[in-house]
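fold-stage: in
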Amino acid sequence: MRQTKRRIEFFSFFDLAGIAAHLERQAARGWMLERCSQLFWRYRRTEPQQCTFAVCCFPKGSEYDPEPPENQRDYYDLCAHTGWELTASFAWMQIFRTTRPAPVPIETDPALALETLHRATRRNRVSYLAVLVIWLPVFLLQVGRAVSDPAGFFASSTDLFSAALSFFLLLLCLTELGGYYLWRRRARRATAQGGPLPDARWNTLLQRVLLALDLGILVLELISLASQGNALPVLFSVMSFGYMFGLITLVNAVRNLLRRRGTPRTRNAVLTTLASFLLAFVLWGGITYAAVQAVSHGVLASAPTDPPLSLSALSGETPEEERTRSSSSASPLLARLEFFSYDAGQPTLWLDYCVYTVRLSALYELCWDDLASGLLDEPVAESGTLIAADAAPWGAQQAMRLYDVNGEETNTYLLRYQTRAVLLRAGWPLTAAQMAQAGQALGGG
């Protein structure tokens, strides 16, 4: 049976009552808090016991202090005299416990406790504000991408999930900052009437929901990319997550090592900051080197996929100097495939198509309009007109053919299928048999 456990705890930084209640439940289950840090909280197994916990603020406290300053030690002695034992501390947060049935509260003036909390959590608020300032332009760029090319946005797992991650990250920061000031306003009213500080359990719950959503979105993105055979983005995402987690762990280890050796607070902060830059450079360099080596040795090479319809298959001819390019992207909502192939020796032997596979029916018209507007925006077709054509040879639900400015037929078609929207262009007039072949290959029939 294990005697210790480590947990990553998520609480709103001002939910002191929620932290105390959580520790009381853990103690009743036989787990006593032993140490807390920025990343992990460590518990040791004890006999189940009924304890009362109190979380207090010491604004001048720092995670770089080798030992508590004199005024903080005096505070500990005063708390011990009234039956409160120091359980753990980190930076400004001081956690006490007592087994007395009706303990005297440590904080006897709730209004003063509120102002102390406000001073102590300044860095927390600044951190959330900094994330908002840094990440908001990133999210706005993603929104701009969604507005300028909505079909392409929804057809890209990277674009779609990254925007969702950014949105919930910003919402988390806004929830913490906005929640704090709303809670502070409520706390001021409560303390003015002589009451205790209100709890903030709903803010902590919302924080955990948003964190769970971010984690779920990240997992879905990795699954989506892996299902498409995109090994490199998956590996990069996993390495980036491991990089951040590893960097935080190593920086904390450096800081704690310097604390145990009695390094003064300011020197510890400087050395830890320098170490964080060095470790960041070394870790990222190692990740980059590993990724380059994996790519150069073909470890992450994706198996080539054959297009659903090739130039030679549709034309019945074998190109002498074929040039081909294709691209594809997909998300759980939409997939897009673009293909272009031509024979450098025959100007009329070329094939170009774009296929949207719609997995969310509400996006179908968006894809159809994207193909139609994109076609008519091209210089060569900007004065052209799409006119209804016979859909039967294509096996389609609807077919549109492009006519040029002179009213002449072109070999450009827009085709509607149940779950696919297709734009097909060819360098020669297609026969009915070729139309049926293209419809079978591209329409999902």
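fold-stage: in (second)
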Amino acid sequence: MSKELIRLSDCTMAFDDEIVLDNLNLYIKDEEFLTLLGPSGCGKTTTLRIIGGFLVPTKGDVFFDGVRINDVPPHKRKVNTVFQKYALVPHLNVYDNVAFGLRLVKPKIDKKEIDQRVREMLEVVSLKGFEHRAVSSLSGGQQQRVAIARALVNRPKVLLLDEPLGALDLRLRKDMQQELKRIQQQMGITFIYVTHDQEEALAMSDTVVVMNEGIIQQIGSPEDIYNEPKNAFVADFIGESNIVDGIMRADGVVEIFGKKFECLDSGFEKDEPVDVVIRPEDVDIVDTRAGQLIGLVTSVTFKGMNYDIIVDFKGFKWLIQTSDFCPAGSKIGIHIVPDGFHVMKKSKYSGLYGDYSSYSDEYEELSDADEAEEGSEDEK
């Protein structure tokens, strides 16, 4: 088991009277790929900047390898950062961009070692043979690799990555997700990654830290975060979720819409009000005569591999993802196995998520926006 490398203990960060981080406690293991995930303004980049030494917490302590480092400046920490804007030096070629930091180190590193380390890093990021290329001639993904090589060439113990894939298109982002994980495993160092994209977090991370309003909502493996969310915010933010009010009638028995269902959850009080999560892919469509619930299809959207359909159950609209086509206006039955239910304690987020009433409206708004943009282009 990897040892603890970084610990943030009771860290609070306030700007003027606004609290951005609220008593945050987090530890990060050596050689771990940990992702800070959450919406804009949740405190994830502030956390990254505290670890990097660019901010000093208003209250609390930061430890690196057991040593308190609150007052240690960034350049003296064994940490490097890759930002969304790669900040490459435009008039230098690939080789000189990667070597830039090594040439500033004191005492000076001899040219032979610099050359060896630069070429080693270019091979790690799959840019061998690109040494003399102008950085302006590179694709976005290649420029990002140069930025990563430049950060790794100084041999940090930790690499901080602040939404580094945000400027790339979808296909390149997916390719770079795999590339970043490969580099992290090959180098054997700790990566701390910041993103608001839950798919990125699930695809790359050993550990995901879900944040909102300056508070950690849940820490766990990608599988735990997705399958066992702690509250309605996490369930909604990590993938699509139908979140309905329920009552825990007994261990293994939950009631929704006035009907009892078998589930695998236990440990709740008898008749305790709860939030119940049903993922769209865990709902099977059946004949109405065999359905545990019967609903009315209100919207159908073709997504390539499947259909996203919105179904109205007693005024609450669910999202169901299925390969079966069900036309709008049709009645369907659904069946959910016990493993398809996840029961959560009530929280401040209860009742805020999970109803897809606005789903069709959102599609119409997007369509209207696209048409308006096309009209604007025609006018030009």
